[in-house]
Amino acid sequence: MVERVRIDHVGHRGDGVSLAAGNAVYVPYALGGETVEVDHVAGNHPDRRKLLAVDVASPDRVEPFCPHFGICGGCAIQHWAPAPYHAWKRGIVAETLAQAGIDCDVAPLVDAHGAGRRRVTLHGRFGTHDVLKVGFSAASSHDVIPIHRCPILDPGLEGSLDAAWALAESLTSRMSVTKPLDIQVTATANGLDVDVRGSGPLPTALITALSRVAEQHRLARLTRHGELVLQRLAPTVRMGRAEVTLPPASFLQATIAGEETLASLVAERVGKAKEVLDLFCGVGPFALRLAEKARVTAYDNDAGAVAALVKAARTPGLKPIKAEPRDLFRRPLAPPELRDFDAVVFDPPRQGAQAQALKLAASKVPVVIAVSCNAATFARDARLLIDGGYRIETVVPVDQFRHTPHVELVARFTR
Ligand SMILES: C[S@@+](CC[C@H](N)C(=O)[O-])C[C@H]1O[C@@H](n2cnc3c(N)ncnc32)[C@H](O)[C@@H]1O
């Protein structure tokens, strides 16, 4: 049923929200103040509408720069001018914290898109008539939108789409791949690092075929489910003074500018601390920079990431870094283990770090710095620290996932 609705504002997921009917109705790609024509969405989505036409456009509406925008699910927002977009993204953090009763200042949004995303996960799937499609998931569906160019990628990912198509074609032409393929490509100093998932076990002939594609596309490394298929060059990235060889599929900040921004916000807040604990350290983007001035102890449950950090920690000129694998959800560091640190940094996955925050709240650590990619779980963990006697300073929102509703933040707590 086609209706005309007025949009009140853009919600935290990037959809236009209309409150006219009493209950919120969500319209992707619509902006606050607009009057739009919408239709109901098939399936069980009573509160969602499909945008058919913009009758009265917002003065903040701009032309999207990508021809796939609105079909490809990779970007939610390309149709909004930068200033209101920045205000909205900062507002996601400010409103989430206010709703959770966390009283603090929120700084203006720091843009950290830089040269673009340095890692991309492409999907390979057969469409109608058994035609292979390689690209991104469609908006609100598992369909794959075939893509040959994506303007938000770092130039270091040049050739990533061609390589992904070639790998998917090579796999699907020689075996019946019924499951979707996930092809993760990371830009490294020595070329593209590719990990293919979803193909299941492969016969030797197919591994040989994949190796040939890796050679043709001059990939630095090709792995399948993290297992090495071919390595031409070590896939390394620079982190401060250190060079880190990436383990396949370990966590990596989405943009170089994002990693550098987060690391420098962390370093400023660590200040002159001599003994620093880096929890959820990954391959060490914070630890390796902090070790230019302080001794660092680091934990993460990804043993491959920790091993990469241990190796990079041998970089001449760095102070000692002790890094060990540890599950911080099940075995958070307890107050006696936290006693000797001047500052603790924690940067958990989206679930947050509830168990560790509880232990920190009971500790005497003078400075705690949180980095988060989820304002809601951050608010929950911040509440634990504040109830434990910490004061929260100005929270800085960081935008490395431009064109999406994802936002990172850095916050310092002191006691
Ligand atoms: C948001 S990433 C941050 C990594 C690193 N600080 C960085 O900036 O690259 C979260 C990290 O938490 C780790 N992680 C996830 N669950 C964990 C757990 N239960 N215990 C310890 N580390 C965990 C992941 O391996 C990942 O490296």
UniProtKB/TrEMBL annotation:
Superkingdom of source: Bacteria
GO molecular function: methyltransferase activity
EC number, UniProt record: 2.1.1.190
Location of the Methyltransferase small domain: 260-359
Top-level EC class: transferase
Pfam families named among the record's database cross-references: MTS
Bilayer-spanning residue ranges: none
Residues annotated as binding S-adenosyl-L-methionine: Q253, F280, D300, D347
PANTHER family hit by this protein: 23S RRNA (URACIL(1939)-C(5))-METHYLTRANSFERASE RLMD, RNA M5U METHYLTRANSFERASE
Protein name, as recorded: 23S rRNA (Uracil1939-C5)-methyltransferase
